[in-house]
TrEMBL record:
<protein>
    <recommendedName>
        <fullName>Pentatricopeptide repeat-containing protein</fullName>
    </recommendedName>
</protein>
<dbReference type="GO" id="GO:0009451">
    <property type="term" value="P:RNA modification"/>
</dbReference>
<feature type="repeat" description="PPR">
    <location>
        <begin position="197"/>
        <end position="231"/>
    </location>
</feature>
<feature type="repeat" description="PPR">
    <location>
        <begin position="501"/>
        <end position="535"/>
    </location>
</feature>
<feature type="repeat" description="PPR">
    <location>
        <begin position="98"/>
        <end position="132"/>
    </location>
</feature>
<dbReference type="Pfam" id="PF12854">
    <property type="entry name" value="PPR_1"/>
</dbReference>
<dbReference type="Pfam" id="PF01535">
    <property type="entry name" value="PPR"/>
</dbReference>
<keyword id="KW-0677">Repeat</keyword>
<dbReference type="InterPro" id="IPR011990">
    <property type="entry name" value="TPR-like_helical_dom_sf"/>
</dbReference>
<feature type="repeat" description="PPR">
    <location>
        <begin position="329"/>
        <end position="363"/>
    </location>
</feature>
<dbReference type="Pfam" id="PF13041">
    <property type="entry name" value="PPR_2"/>
</dbReference>
<dbReference type="GO" id="GO:0003723">
    <property type="term" value="F:RNA binding"/>
</dbReference>
<dbReference type="InterPro" id="IPR046960">
    <property type="entry name" value="PPR_At4g14850-like_plant"/>
</dbReference>
<dbReference type="InterPro" id="IPR002885">
    <property type="entry name" value="PPR_rpt"/>
</dbReference>
<dbReference type="InterPro" id="IPR046848">
    <property type="entry name" value="E_motif"/>
</dbReference>
<feature type="repeat" description="PPR">
    <location>
        <begin position="430"/>
        <end position="464"/>
    </location>
</feature>
<dbReference type="Pfam" id="PF20431">
    <property type="entry name" value="E_motif"/>
</dbReference>
């Protein structure tokens, strides 16, 4: 280890540790200490210890600067044993260490978690300065040892603190448990006349924000004769923490009016507030300021801009904002990919993900979650499985939300076996994860398994949420368990603490309607504690179409079109109802209404692409090819009208063969 040092020493013709008569005394041991400092900055613990021993053997002293660097290394690496070795070595080498070095030792012990050693050394110090007090008090406060910090601060009667010690201590108070000490510090600062300092006032304001005492923070802010951008930003953060987004925007407008110099952090917070409020007008004003100051290329500003436009539904502007970022980080990519996924642009979402992977960029769990959601929507099993494997390699699958998205993706791609494997690999699934697997089984028609999983969830002391019950009602619907569904709806609040909403009532309306209990379905619509929405009447209309109840179907259709006259599905259900009843004249009128109102049943591009691989029409074709002569084709997943068409087509096929 000494080879490099000896080489340098030999070049100067000076043996290691020996000074030449012509060499100034200040240079004695200089090379060795430079090397020692270098080792400490590289964190080479073992080499540091060995080199100090060799310096001792050569009679070379460790300088104060070297001790300072060594203690800093031990503090940063949390190496208490090495720190004690350095401290003992220093005590042997130095008669009375200077205060600043003793302060370094106290700080090292604090950072290594040895408060007993820190306090013992503090008590043994024959002389202390303000930094000595600040180091120990701040360390106690940061560790949550508030009582110790208060006791120590109270014992400073013989010491006259200046505003810097207040700032040092106040900065360490970061939550409500520190509020008592913060108030004491504030009172003493007022008593000692330090409240005219803008830096101290800003620190006190920030302390109240971090401790959740926004009323006091507002009072400090209003009393400040001079406010810097940090004070404005601190109050903005406080408002955001309490979801007071309108106040954030008010502060921003006030800053602009007063000519306060805006920075990237202000833009970031304000854009987040605009995104939550979907306030596109102010958001675009902020975007104008961003462009004016030329910081749109910074990821810290560009990323909130992307997120803002995504949440406002303006994906085009979000993409433009993203393209202006010179070095997008993983959060920038995540904002864009999430935007594509949430806006239904699933192909763009997956295309962007592939581009990101090709760059070998950093990926986070939110990106994978959005990709799994996109794969779910377009049934892209292969890409979803690849993303799953990639997430495993990167160690990003231990996030429950991402795992829930994976379960849903596999289930919707028709691979319930993979979904179960992911679910069973989770040690402690939460209610979101349970809901994902229950829904997967329910939507696959495996209602008994879905209900068994629901009972298993309850026995695991996991509380279901509102979405869980949507999946459970779907399972009841598939199983035809009407009375069980009815009892579940009535007991949701009392037994599980979940208030049923309009979606749960719509599930029950649909269960009644599909089972042919149309009068009960209508009665529930009339008596439920919510105003019926379009979906309520759509569920009833669907049941009327299945069971050919023209009278109730007409009532449902009229109410549905009153609420949503442009709902294409409503016209399709009405057409099916008339057609299944043989009322072709009325069916023709419905079709005419659709043409007049320029309505048509649209197939989303990604769905159209899926139909290239599989569709009911293709299923019918394969069914006819593989069906034995004389048998009728059937499918439980196609509507009644489609079943009739299949029956007729299969009969026509065999009739045609007879003629031939």
């Amino acid at each position: 280890m000494l080879r490099h040092v000896e080489l340098v020493a030999s070049m100067a013709a000076i043996p290691m540790g020996v000074s030449s008569p012509k060499t100034p005394l200040v240079q004695q041991g200089h090379i060795e200490n430079v090397h020692l400092v270098s080792l400490s900055k590289q964190g080479k613990i073992q080499e540091v210890g060995d080199f100090i021993k060799q310096m001792d053997e050569s009679g070379v002293s460790v300088t104060l600067h070297s001790y300072e660097c060594l203690l800093e290394m031990c503090a940063d690496l949390r190496r208490l044993s090495v720190g004690k070795f350095i401290h003992n070595h220093m005590q042997r080498s130095l008669n009375i260490p200077p205060i600043f070095i003793q302060n370094c030792v106290v700080e090292m012990y604090c950072k290594c978690g040895s408060f007993s050693d820190a306090h013992q050394l503090f008590d043994e110090m024959t002389e202390r300065n303000l930094a000595s007090w600040a180091i120990l008090i701040s360390a106690y406060a940061k560790a949550g040892l508030i009582r110790k910090a208060v006791e120590l601060f109270s014992s400073m009667e013989t010491v006259e603190p200046d505003f810097s010690i207040y700032i040092s201590i106040l900065r360490s108070l970061v939550d409500s448990s520190s509020l008592e000490l913060g108030k004491q510090m504030h009172s003493l600062a007022i008593k000692n006349g330090f409240t005219h300092d803008v830096k101290l006032n800003t620190t006190i304001l920030n302390m109240y924000v971090k401790c959740g005492c926004l009323d006091s923070a507002e009072l400090i802010f209003d009393q400040m004769a001079e406010k810097n951008v940090v004070a404005w930003t601190a109050l903005m953060v406080g408002y955001m923490q309490l979801e007071k987004r309108v106040q954030v925007l008010d502060l921003f407008l006030a800053m602009v009016k007063e000519g306060i110099q805006l920075d990237e952090y202000v833009f970031s917070i304000t854009l987040k507030a605009c995104a939550c409020l979907e306030n596109q007008a102010i958001g675009q004003q902020i975007h104008g300021h961003v462009l004016k100051l030329g910081v749109a290329n910074e990821a810290s500003v560009g990323t909130p801009l992307v997120d803002f436009y995504v949440k406002c539904g303006n994906l085009e502007s979000a993409t433009r904002a993203f393209n202006k970022i010179s070095e997008p980080n993983d959060f920038s990519w995540s904002a864009l990919i999430t935007g594509y996924s949430q806006s239904g642009e699933f192909d763009e979402c997956l295309k962007t993900f592939k581009s990101l992977k090709s760059r070998d960029a950093m990926l986070n769990p939110f990106i994978y979650t959005s990709v799994f959601q996109a794969c779910s929507a377009v049934a892209a099993f292969d890409l979803g499985a690849q993303a799953h494997g990639d997430a495993i390699k990167r160690g990003l699958v231990s996030y429950l939300y991402g795992e829930s998205a994976m379960i849903t993706m596999y289930a919707r791609c028709g691979r319930l076996d993979y979904a179960r494997q992911v679910f069973e690999s989770i040690q402690k699934p939460d209610n979101v994860t349970w809901t994902a697997i229950i829904a997967g089984c329910a939507y696959h028609g495996d209602a008994p398994e879905a209900l068994r999983l629901f009972r298993r969830m309850l026995s695991s002391d996991v509380r279901p949420n509102a979405i869980t019950f949507i999946a459970v009602f779907t399972a009841y619907n598939y199983s035809g368990l009407i009375e069980e569904a009815k009892e579940c709806l009535h007991s949701m609040s009392s037994r599980y603490g979940v208030e049923p909403d309009i979606n749960h009532y719509n599930c029950m309306i649909d269960i009644y309607a599909r089972a042919g209990r149309l009068e009960e379905s209508l009665e529930l619509i009339k008596n439920m504690p919510f105003e019926p929405v379009a979906m309520s009447w759509k569920c009833l209309l669907g049941g009327c179409s299945i069971h050919k109840n023209f009278k109730l179907g007409k009532v449902a259709a009229e109410n549905l079109l009153r609420l949503d006259p442009h709902d294409t599905a409503a016209y399709v259900l009405m057409f099916n109802l008339h057609a299944s009843s043989g009322n072709w004249e009325e069916a023709g009128l419905v079709r005419k209404m659709m043409v007049e109102r320029k309505l048509r049943k649209e197939i989303l591009p990604e769905r159209r692409e899926q139909l290239l691989d599989h569709s009911e029409r293709l299923a019918i074709a394969y069914g006819l090819i593989s069906t034995a002569k004389g048998l009728v084709s059937r499918s439980s997943r196609i509507y009644e009208l489609a079943k009739i068409a299949m029956n007729l087509l299969s009969v026509c096929r065999w009739s045609q063969e007879k003629k031939l």
